[in-house]
Design goal:
The chain is of the alpha/beta class and 227 residues long. The chain has a single domain, classed as Rossmann fold (3-Layer(aba) Sandwich), CATH 3.40.50. It is built from 5 helices and 7 strands, in the order βαββαβαβαβαβ. The protein has a 7-stranded parallel beta sheet with strand order 3-2-1-4-5-6-7, with helices on both faces. α1 packs across α5 and α3 packs parallel to α4. The chain is globular, with a radius of gyration of 17 Å. Bound molecules: NADP nicotinamide-adenine-dinucleotide phosphate (NAP).
């Protein structure tokens, strides 16, 4: 099985790399510049790509990097939180620039990567998994704030659902995932679960994707997230 994961040098992305390598998959792991934890992995099945998801990559780059013609699984994991709650995502302080930057990485980035890799996922009749967050669920939002992150992750849920509808005829399954509150740099390692627990749950959801509606929003524990 061929798997491509964005934002794979640390956190949940790195956890996905370790999980799918352990399953015997060939993994294309993307990072911006720092190899991070990828540098410690010694496996002929690991292929590292330099890829900022907001940059414009093209077919020539994919061919130069020997990205295979068939991808069974694309995980759009790369994401940023943006300024911390107290420093710029409150009603009073959030700026248009913050809204745009976080939107571009968390939503547009996943769409651009999917557009570029779509023919390969279609060839494998594969899966696209978009990593959103429960913070993008309106129904779950009782605490307010976090304007940029919430809006960008909500937009990703909607984009993911459209992808699910549009690619269904090509045999591609698309799902949106919530990893839980996970101990990573993003949460200053204050999460409720560790990366391995999150990734194990998310991989099980992906494996059982046929049980869910196209474009469903599902948490690491298999529960559908209302949005
Ligand atoms: N941790 C949680 O509790 C939690 C909860 C809900 C959802 N999520 C989502 O899960 C995903 C992974 O989060 P995490 O906790 O593992 O975060 P993390 O530890 O901060 O890692 C984020 C990853 O995304 C990469 N990235 C950021 N901007 C990028 C860009 N423009 N192009 C390519 N890669 C980029 C980072 O690369 P660099 O090293 O180059 O910065 C890093 O590899 C994110 O989408 C996040 O929003 C996390």
């Amino acid at each position: 099985m061929n798997v491509l994961i964005t934002g794979a040098n640390r956190g949940i992305g790195l956890g996905f790399v370790q999980h799918y390598l352990a399953q015997g998959c060939d993994v294309w792991a993307t990072c911006r510049s720092d190899y991070g934890g990828l540098a410690d992995i010694d496996s002929p099945r690991l292929h590292i790509l330099q890829w900022d998801v907001i940059s414009d990559k093209d077919e020539r780059y994919l061919q130069a990097m020997a990205v295979p013609d068939r991808l069974d699984l694309l995980i759009n994991n790369a994401g940023i939180y943006g300024p911390k709650k107290t420093h710029g995502q409150s009603f009073e302080t959030v700026t248009a620039e913050t809204m745009q930057v976080v939107f571009e990485v968390n939503c547009v980035g996943a769409l651009k990567v999917s557009q570029l890799l779509a023919s390969r996922v279609i060839s494998a009749r594969g899966v696209i998994a978009n990593i959103s967050s429960k913070m993008g669920s309106s129904e779950d939002n009782s605490s307010g704030g976090c304007y940029a992150y919430r809006a960008a992750k909500a937009a990703l849920v909607i984009v993911s659902r459209s992808m699910a509808v549009d690619l269904a005829a090509d045999g591609v399954n698309v799902i949106t995932l919530h990893p839980g509150w996970v101990s990573t740099d993003m949460t200053n390692h204050s999460g409720l679960i560790d990366v391995a627990t999150s990734v194990k749950g998310l991989a099980t959801v992906i494996e059982n994707i046929e049980q869910y509606q196209p474009g469903a929003f599902v948490a690491f524990d298999g529960k559908v997230v209302p949005y």
